[in-house]
Design goal:
The protein is built from 21 helices and ten strands. The chain is α/β, with parallel strands linked by helices. The strands form two sheets. Strands 3-9-10-8-7-4-5-6 form an eight-stranded mixed beta sheet, sandwiched between helices. The protein has a two-stranded antiparallel ribbon with strand order 1-2. It is globular, with a radius of gyration of 28 Å.
Length: about 575
């Protein structure tokens, strides 16, 4: 892709570096918070004080000074862990190593601007510059700030990939509510097929698509007239295409706010107040919010009876209706996306889902668990797929081939590359859960909610001491959010677990809380160590995916690209790949 593109050997070298680091530190990431006190986790793994850890991780001060002597236990260390006891004794060494073994520290990633520059330099001379298409539409007209940032950043990359490969179709796997698909089709004129396993999501996307067809022509005409210097309100354009003679009066006349739910919630430390929808500033904002939101309240528009119209006006409306129908037929085959409901795997035959399939770019924005590696497997296996841009999430939902408890049958999501499979590499679910933590946000004080974790760990002690069932696989569930106090929490949890809560008095329960409250700092510090290791675990998962693409003969170019601001979107890395054009099916 560029002179700075990394070879397969270089990617494998980075994998080995991260693997060696994690082999010494993964025990911390895999320690279960629920068992923190019953297994005496702090004393088993850490030989420094909680205060030292919290100070070093949150302020970064430990990175600016030389390590202090920790006595005999520090005489021989590996990444800060004593070679004899396997306990953490040198925070400076650990934090420096964690930084060096994250994706930024490894120097393996491209920036979004670097990728776009390469695609611009190599774009087809016969095509229209992707950045010039629909330049006036901004995604924050119908999305919250996080989703707006993601869609705007990713859609431009996808548009340039499509132009680079000279294709007009995009397949959006795990398309959800269709925001990326809508934006790609509307702003960049791409024909997008959004595939999601949820019929609810697909139905919502279809409703948005129906509205979008009604309003897209008005927006396009408004843009054209604005470019020609004419001054027409988009509200006027909206009136021109309002259904009148076809009996469809249920059209929104005014914009409204669409409250969106954030799609990435696993171990999230997001402040919900920071993700509220934006205010509407212009009539154009209202127009497109109406078009793309199925949740707004629709009101009936004023309608003049046909008998009161002049002959000239009736003829004009008849012509407009014919033009609108022709436009919708064209849009349905080109720029307005088609939502499809299907559960897809690497074995899915895309041509059975999409009869009009041509060469296409496959994309996935925050595809959960095994769907992200399945997207890459599909890209490799299907000759009609020219490029891929995949951003995964929910690493805890990945199935691991060498975890006998998780991957009992079928094709697993990790490891994906033959290189790591040959080494039988295994992370563990708790480690993958840790990989979902957001170091950048925690570093700015948006920390983990510790009280609920503390309650659950102390409950585990109570279950061990009084019920003999503390290893039960039955989950407590979301009891904390409903509890008014620790005592109330324990009683609700015991009821959920079908245990006799009358065994313990309120004072007995409160005594457990008071006994372990002074050690709450240990749990906080330990989870901060997990946060420190999170980028390294995520890095190994993503390097495995990049290595998989590098191993494929038909994939000519591939890279890891940071698409998003990690403060807005912690799962910010995309795996991008391009195929050899001679091996693709031509349209």
């Amino acid at each position: 892709m560029a002179p700075s593109a990394h070879t397969l050997g270089e990617v494998q070298q980075r994998i080995d570096e991260v693997r060696r680091f994690l082999s010494a530190t993964l025990s911390i990431a895999n320690a279960h918070t629920v068992e923190f006190y019953t297994q005496d986790v702090w004393r088993r793994f850490v030989a420094v004080t909680p205060q030292e850890v919290l100070s070093a991780v949150t302020s970064g001060s430990d990175l600016q000074r030389e390590p202090e002597s920790k006595g005999n236990e520090r005489s021989s260390t590996r990444f800060g862990f004593c070679s004899d006891t396997n306990r953490l004794v040198d925070l400076h060494e650990l934090l420096q190593a964690a930084k060096a073994h994250s994706l930024p520290g490894l120097g393996i990633c491209w920036s979004r601007d670097e990728l776009l520059q390469v695609l611009r330099e190599n774009r087809s001379e016969s095509g229209t510059a992707a950045a010039d298409i629909g330049a006036e539409l901004e995604p924050d007209e119908f999305m919250n700030s996080k989703k707006s940032h993601e869609v705007q950043s990713m859609s431009e990359v996808v548009a340039y990939l499509a132009q680079y490969c000279r294709v007009k179709q995009v397949i959006d796997v795990g398309s959800g509510k269709g925001y990326l698909s809508s934006f790609l089709s509307l702003k960049y004129g791409l024909r997008v097929y959004g595939i999601d396993s949820s019929s609810t999501n697909t139905h919502g996307a279809q409703e948005r698509n129906r509205k979008l067809k009604k309003f897209s022509r008005a927006y396009q005409k408004h843009n054209k007239r604005s470019q020609e210097g004419e001054t027409h309100s988009p509200r006027d354009e909206l009136v021109e295409i309002k259904p009148g003679s076809n009996g469809d009066d249920n059209v929104s006349c005014a914009g409204g706010e669409n409250e969106l739910q954030e799609e990435e919630k696993v171990l999230s430390d997001v402040n919900p107040a920071a993700e509220r929808h934006l205010e509407l500033n212009t009539e154009t904002d209202e127009l497109f919010l109406s078009a793309l939101s199925v949740d707004v309240i629709q009101t009936a528009c004023p309608r003049i009876p046909p008998s009161q119209l002049s002959a000239e006006e009736r003829e004009r409306r008849k012509k407009e209706n014919l033009e609108r129908k022709a436009l919708n037929r064209t849009a349905s085959g080109s720029s307005v996306f088609s939502p499809l409901t299907s559960y897809v795997t690497a074995e899915t035959e895309l041509r059975e889902l999409i009869s009009e399939l041509e060469d296409a770019v496959m994309v996935g924005l925050h595809t959960c668990g095994d769907l992200a590696p399945s997207t890459l497997r599909m890209f490799v296996a299907k000759p009609e797929l020219a490029a891929v841009c995949s951003v995964g999430c929910c690493y805890h939902l990945l199935s691991e081939e060498f975890d006998q408890q998780e991957c009992l049958h079928g094709i697993c999501g990790f490891p994906l590359s033959q290189y790591l499979r040959d080494q039988s590499w295994f992370c563990g679910r708790n480690a993958r859960m840790s990989a979902c933590l957001a170091l950048e946000r925690v570093s700015l004080g948006q920390g983990i909610q510790m009280e609920s974790l503390f309650y659950r760990a102390v409950l585990h002690v109570i279950l061990r001491d009084h019920y003999g069932s503390y290893k039960s696989e039955k989950r407590v569930g979301n009891v904390y959010s409903k509890a008014k106090s620790f005592v109330d929490y324990v009683r609700r949890a015991l009821t959920r677990l079908d245990q006799d809560e009358s065994k313990l008095s309120d004072n007995d329960i409160q005594d457990y809380h008071d006994r372990y409250a002074p050690r709450m700092g240990e749990m906080h510090a330990f989870n901060m160590l997990k946060v420190t290791l999170a980028p390294c675990i995520e890095g190994l998962i993503l390097l495995d995916r990049l290595c998989y693409l590098k191993e494929q003969e038909d994939v000519s170019q591939s890279a890891l690209v940071q698409l998003f601001d990690p403060l807005l979107s912690p799962r910010c890395y995309a795996v991008v790949g391009l195929k050899n054009s001679r091996n693709r099916v031509t349209s």
